[in-house]
Design brief:
The protein is α/β, with parallel strands linked by helices. It is 33% helix and 21% strand. It is built from 18 helices and 25 strands. The protein is elongated.
């Protein structure tokens, strides 16, 4: 009972002062102010605002020594001190004790007259208090006794390279810019830019955001070029093919038609379904005026393996090669296509490295980065003025997705949304339950036990909105147990539903042709084949397929093309639907 009362009182305090004062939470066993970084904030300013040594701030927030990002959450360790408080109307001894997180006995000890009750405008001296910090005026709201803020120790300065004369700016890379030109323009060595941005090479792409340290003495000397107005992509950025009367197209599929010893009926059936969809696309392309010969290579055949197929001279004359559906085999064919400067299309997700330095590569499935960008934008659009809680994962894969989402979330312009984000853990996320009327959790984890417990906890709470992963749908507890009416939103490369108008229309055509029910793989085969082959005659990088959206964007000069379009889907009532 006492714990429940203490919990309620703590969050009551947060709500009373949440509109004007920095909220307080507990992190790593220490009480901290929650500060959301605004434009112009730096380490020196936070030290002065919260009267907290820079060394303590840095130790509580590993990584901020590289600079601040607008919208980022920083935890400032509370520095207890003696404050002077003027009693307001109807204010009680109990209320004051809660306000500063001290006991009533302590207040009475240093203010004996308070024992008989407080009087309007009475001045109280309160030692060991947690001072209220006004976030709108960037100043303390109480008379904090003046204390010199200690300078960071020599060890800390060496570890964190603290400099109060530097600021960090975010620069969006323009076409034709490189890390070398940025280093010359801002007078910052290339190695320093690589270290600040965690870059393993000197390659940067147009549209990429790069952090650049700007020293105060440089500000007036550096001429910042105005950002040119947004222009339509130049023609060279469009995926194009040379005009020809006829085209040669290769499809690599693991059909396994002669049943080898490694036969896998699930893989073989999926490949066959993909081909059936691709065949319908070929028929449609023929009606559109495309004159093409399609060569289908069964690389799981007993008579011809992948190595033997790649030795065929005819492959060197292919206008387009559709890569194998499996990652390992796709990488082998990718090496062949890159070496011979042939166009290769990947129907399924591939490593981003396949596009680097290969302008003839096309990935038709959005990357994890693309999907996180779409999810972040969706969160901003739906919750423009609210605070979002990211429950960070504990595995390397989960942490990678968390970072992709954080970067995308912080890159959304404030003109679109004022939403903020707080980073939480599985141990402390519950403390944010009462922060707003509507709670928005982002959970990019595949920890089945933790995720299922979260979904179960909030399945009947309509004020809690969860953004998660499409992989959750593979768990029988989510999609196969009727009692679990879970709801969440996720990003997906495709949207397959028999109730979708596009799928319903295509399903009728598919059944007429094959007397079989339509599958996701058949739709993928149709979409991928139609998308790429329509480029041969129309050069349009933006299309809508049966279950896929396509918007091909070149990933920088000299690199390949990536599909950046996907879907944001709401899963509710055992069915996924677009937002």
């Amino acid at each position: 009972m006492k714990k429940s009362l203490l919990f309620f009182l703590l969050f009551s305090t947060v709500f009373v002062y949440g509109q004007q004062y920095a909220q307080i939470t507990e992190r790593e066993g220490k009480k901290c102010y929650i500060h959301t970084v605004a434009d112009g904030n730096n380490l020196y300013g936070l030290q002065q605002m919260y009267a907290c040594p820079a060394e303590d701030i840095l130790n509580m927030n590993p990584g901020i020594e590289r600079g601040f990002t607008t919208g980022e959450v920083v935890f400032i360790p509370v520095q207890r001190r003696t404050v002077k408080h003027t009693v307001a109307e109807k204010e009680t001894l109990y209320a004051v004790s809660r306000m500063y997180d001290v006991s009533m006995d302590s207040i009475v000890k240093y203010n004996p007259k308070a024992k008989n009750g407080l009087i309007l405008n009475q001045r109280l001296t309160i030692p060991n208090a947690i001072a209220k910090i006004q976030t709108d005026q960037l100043a303390t709201s109480t008379e904090v006794s003046q204390q010199e803020i200690p300078k960071p120790s020599v060890a800390a300065q060496s570890k964190f390279k603290i400099s109060f004369s530097d600021a960090i700016v975010s620069h969006v890379v323009l076409p034709q810019e490189s890390l070398y030109t940025l280093s010359k323009r801002f007078m910052v060595p290339v190695p320093e830019l690589q270290a600040l941005n965690n870059l393993k090479s000197s390659r940067v792409n147009p549209g990429q955001t790069v952090k650049i340290p700007i020293k105060k003495e440089k500000v007036e000397r550096v001429q910042i070029r105005p950002v040119p107005p947004k222009q339509e992509p130049e023609e060279k950025d469009e995926l194009q093919f040379s005009a020809r009367k006829s085209f040669e197209i290769a499809l690599f599929l693991p059909l396994n038609l002669d049943s080898t010893a490694t036969y896998n009926r699930f893989v073989s059936n999926a490949a066959l379904e993909y081909y059936m969809g691709a065949k319908l696309a070929m028929d449609s392309l023929s009606h559109l005026g495309l004159n093409a010969t399609f060569h289908v290579y069964d690389y799981e055949s007993a008579n011809e393996n992948l190595t033997a197929i790649l030795e065929k001279p005819e492959l060197l004359g292919m206008d387009v090669i559709f890569s194998p559906l499996q990652q390992r085999e796709a990488e082998v064919v990718s090496v062949f296509a890159r070496k011979n400067e042939l166009t290769i299309a990947f129907p399924v997700a591939m490593k981003e490295s396949e596009l680097i330095g290969n302008p003839n590569a096309i990935c038709l499935s959005p990357s994890s980065s693309n999907l996180m960008e779409q999810m972040a934008l969706s969160v901003h659009q739906h919750y423009v003025d609210q605070t979002v809680v990211l429950i960070k994962g504990e595995t390397e894969a989960d942490m990678k997705l968390d970072q992709l989402f954080l970067t995308a979330f912080r890159n959304v312009p404030s003109s679109i949304s004022k939403a903020k984000i707080i980073e939480a853990t599985w141990k402390n996320y519950k403390q944010y339950e009462f922060m707003n009327e509507d709670i928005i959790y982002v959970v990019l984890s595949t920890d089945k036990a933790k995720v299922l417990a979260l979904l179960e906890k909030y399945k009947s709470n309509h004020h809690v909105h969860i953004f998660g992963l499409k992989e959750w749908l593979e768990w029988k507890e989510v999609s196969g147990t009727i009692e679990n009416t879970y709801a969440f939103t996720y990003a997906s490369p495709t949207y397959f539903s028999y109730h979708s108008p596009n799928v319903m229309a295509f399903h009728k055509k598919y059944r007429r042709t094959y007397s079989s029910d339509l599958t996701r793989m058949a739709c993928l085969g149709y979409d991928a084949t139609l998308m790429i082959c329509r480029q041969l005659i129309s050069q349009t990088n933006k299309q809508t397929g049966i279950i896929s959206n396509y918007q091909l964007i070149q990933q920088g000069v000299g690199n390949g093309f990536q599909n950046t379009a996907g879907y944001i889907l709401d899963y509710k009532g055992f069915e996924s639907k677009p937002e």
